[in-house]
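So, does this match?
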Amino acid sequence: TCSRLDAIRSVYGASVARDLMEIEAADEDPSRSVFDMDGFISNANYVAKKTTMVLFINGRLVECTALKRAIEVVYAATLPKASKPFIYMSIVLPPEHVDVNVHPTKREVSLLNQESIIDNIQNEVESKITNCNTTRTFHTQNVYPSTPGLLSGSKDTQVNPSPPGTKSQKVPVNKMVRTDSQDPFGRLHAYLQEKPSGPHGKSADLAAVRSAVRQRRNPKETADLTSVQDLLNDIDRNTHSGMLEIVKHCTYIGMADDVFALLQHNT
């Protein structure tokens, strides 16, 4: 027994070995099942997020999913927050009662009269946990009374700077805010444009945007030929202002036929 506990301590640590208790179960009735089990299970003080089960059957390291689940059910029903146990068991039974042809790796095994063996072990585990649940260990933290002199001081007293040897607490990047002492609200106004007051201001801005878009789409090209330049100047001089204003507020829809085109006005 001491060698097994020492092996557990060396592999899993002293904190695990400290919270283990010995368990034994056996059945000598040939009509039900013949087996002999001894090992260690964790007590109520052991806390883990994952079940650790080390199972030896006839000296061979194997796995038995049904036995593992049965023991987990006992711990979940007895201990708070469904604590995950640590289990070390060594079961000895006749070799012909072990079926190793469950998994290709031969690690998963099945037992003859498996339900009877699991019920026997499950009852013994439940009895052990129930008896040890009344003697749990709780770790407490010492709370020291505060110094009266610190509480009686003024609220406006400046906090003493940290000693030169200590490190200041680093502020996470997502908690940092880029601000200016002269402008505590930031400088977002530099990126915002004031909205014009009244509907006339909005229409003027819209017209300016449309004009800029038209100039971008249809830039004026300087003609190399004098005749072409004279023709363009003649068109600019004879342009009808009213017709030009109407065309400016039209949207081209498409060709109606070989001669006429469809325009949509003031929409």
